[in-house]
Amino acid sequence: MDRPIVFLGPSLPRSEAQSLLEAEYRPPAGQGDIMRACSDRPPAIVLIDGIFKDAPTVRHREILWAMSQGIPVFGAASMGALRAAELSRAGMIGIGLVYRWYRRFALLPDDAVAVTHSPPELGSTPLSDALVDLRRSLRRAERTGAITVTEASALCADLTSRAFPDRALPANLEPFRVTQKAADARSLLTLLARHKGRGHWPVTNVPAPAIVHAWLDDLGDSGLSLPPGE
């Protein structure tokens, strides 16, 4: 395969993503999907969106294993930003503001990037707003004088207290909406297009992760197994 594999869902419309980078686009990644992608030997694996609640999430160990096979793994915007921040020292490449937030603020909650969305067959359209986007939107509204600092703080506290499927920007603040996750996804896909155009991808130098029984059990439950000799 000469095209990267990109796991994309509600962070950016697929039609826009395809205009930025020619790639094989797959729905948000869950446990085992990175392993399956490795079997196609793509030049890179790109994690933007992942499953948060409907099935087991992408495991750190399968990302480490992918990189140990010589496949660079990039992340941004949503689950990709979260995993890239957690695995940056191990070699996963993160891009964007959300990724930098997760690296800087270790206690930023995982669900700050989570949203509910329609099924992939219906375009993975977001049905709620991510807390990272809401915080940026409230800050923009505050800076323009649409709301006061006190109002912005109260709204942020209220939205943070809600479960992620119930988070949404108030209708009166719609003109101040900021879609940071989408911006970060665009930045990553633009960078990858340059790599693809040059035919040059980062070289990984990551040792294979230790094989532990819990991981083997997880792989078995996913219908996967490590290649012989691993």
Structural commentary:
Helix 1 links the parallel strand 1 and strand 2. The chain is α/β, with parallel strands linked by helices and 230 residues long. The protein has 9 helices and 5 strands; from the N terminus they run βαβαβαβαβααααα. The longest helix is centred in the C-terminal third of the chain and has 19 residues. The model has no long low-confidence stretch (mean pLDDT 90). A 5-stranded parallel β-sheet has the order 2-1-3-4-5. Helix content is 40%, strand content 7%.
List descriptors.
single chain; alpha/beta; 40% helix; 230 residues; five-stranded parallel sheet; 5 strands
Describe the structure concisely.
With 230 residues, the chain is α/β, with parallel strands linked by helices. The protein is built from nine helices and five strands.
- Order of SSEs, N→C? EHEHEHEHEHHHHH
The geometry reads as globular
Instruction: State the end-to-end CA separation.
Output: 22 Å
Structural class: alpha/beta
- Roughly what percent helix? 40-55%
The whole-angstrom Rg is 18 Å
Strand content: 5-15%
How many DSSP E strands? 5
The average pLDDT score comes to: 90
Secondary structure tally, helices: 9
* Main beta-sheet strand count, sense and barrel state: 5 strands, parallel
Q: Largest sheet, order of strands side by side?
A: 2-1-3-4-5
Q: Uncertain runs with pLDDT below 50, 5 residues or more?
A: none
